[in-house]
Amino acid sequence: MRILGGTIGQVALFVAVLGAAAAAAAPSITTSGNADVQARIDCPLQLELDVFGVGLNRSQIWGAFDEGLGLPPGAMMGCHGQNVPIGGGLQVCIGGPIVISFSPTPMHAGRSYSAVLHWSGGFDGVSGAVQATAHTNISISVSRPSVAFLRQQGDSPDDVQHHFTFNVGCPESFAIEAADISPPATPSAIASGASCTSSYPVSITTAPDGAFPPSSNGLPQAIPARDVSGAMVGAAELVSAEGDDRNGVRRMELRWTPARGHESSKPYRICFRASTAAALGADGSAVRCVSVKVQKCQYCVQEGETIKTVAAMFDTDWLHIYTANPTVIALTRCAHAIPKPRVHPGLEICADGLESLAGKQRQHFTLFVGIPALG
């Protein structure tokens, strides 16, 4: 038996005084209330459990845990500045308050603990029986790290795969977000001075195991350039997105400019894994896959390119490109004063044509280049 808050001699005197001083009115004990709290990994917890007596002063009240208490391993009991590990026998604190401190670790994740703190006070001078009792129920649940991908525009409520359409030559991107959805720690139970965040930090990486076609990093790979010997082009990348600063939410962005040769009848599958720093094994992680279709027979025009250069790229002539895209290419409008501009095979288009549209609009647009041999 371990007694905190007094010596053996003081306890003996305390018992004798109680036995000799029977109160006229029936004494009673009131506690500061039960403790039902949520804890988080790596966030120190501290519970102060106090008691008040009617017809009893503080020195006439003591609190004790049963030997079969259910508090987590590593929890400490504090009494009048003394801290001892809970467990291994009856522990008594005279007067209170009793302070329970606990620092959850990954081994505690997803577990719930409960215990009862028994308060007693006063002795009947004749029978020696305890005059007043009370109980404080303690319940501690440690959050299991849990993350989820946030819905993106166009998702249905039960959609686990988002679909995108990309074009050759266009810098394409989409954002993917994940958030910590595990319950937060009870604010009043966080130890004073502890630097705890309200959410677990979240990370997003690729999940190569789910990628198609297979790749070492789970992303579409670079392929040899058609116009520069030895050059590789068209690798996708996963980067931190602008505005990625919300607590408990991680936002990443996939960026990819597909090159000629990335077109495929079967969509690419890119998978992402979101996890928390506190997660162990499969706990606290989620996987989401998206599909990306790179359109065949479509090309995203770059600033400075002309009908002639695009036609040469696809082994055809300017007339085919023009007739396939009559609403995009305006051959009849020129910035200079030529009433009826003539465009001949092999000549660059004039103002407001293919070259100037890409420059003036400061954006990319696509042309249909559906040649029977290619499309």
Short description:
The protein has helices at residues 8-20, 307-313, 318-324, 354-360; strands at residues 2-4, 28-31, 35-39, 45-49, 51-54, 61-65, 76-79, 82-85, 91-94, 98-102, 112-123, 130-142, 147-149, 161-168, 172-180, 202-206, 223-224, 232-233, 237-240, 249-256, 268-276, 285-301, 365-368. With 375 residues, it is mainly beta.
Write the layout of secondary structure elements.
Blueprint: E1 2-4, H1 8-20, E2 28-31, E3 35-39, E4 45-49, E5 51-54, E6 61-65, E7 76-79, E8 82-85, E9 91-94, E10 98-102, E11 112-123, E12 130-142, E13 147-149, E14 161-168, E15 172-180, E16 202-206, E17 223-224, E18 232-233, E19 237-240, E20 249-256, E21 268-276, E22 285-301, H2 307-313, H3 318-324, H4 354-360, E23 365-368
Give a verbal description of the structure.
With 375 residues, the chain is mostly beta strands. 9% of the residues lie in helices and 37% in strands. It has helices spanning 8-20, 307-313, 318-324, 354-360, and strands at residues 2-4, 28-31, 35-39, 45-49, 51-54, 61-65, 76-79, 82-85, 91-94, 98-102, 112-123, 130-142, 147-149, 161-168, 172-180, 202-206, 223-224, 232-233, 237-240, 249-256, 268-276, 285-301, 365-368. The strands form 6 sheets. The protein has a 6-stranded mixed β-sheet with strand order 1-9-6-11-12-3. Strands 14, 16, 21, 22 and 23 form a 5-stranded mixed β-sheet that branches. The termini are far apart.
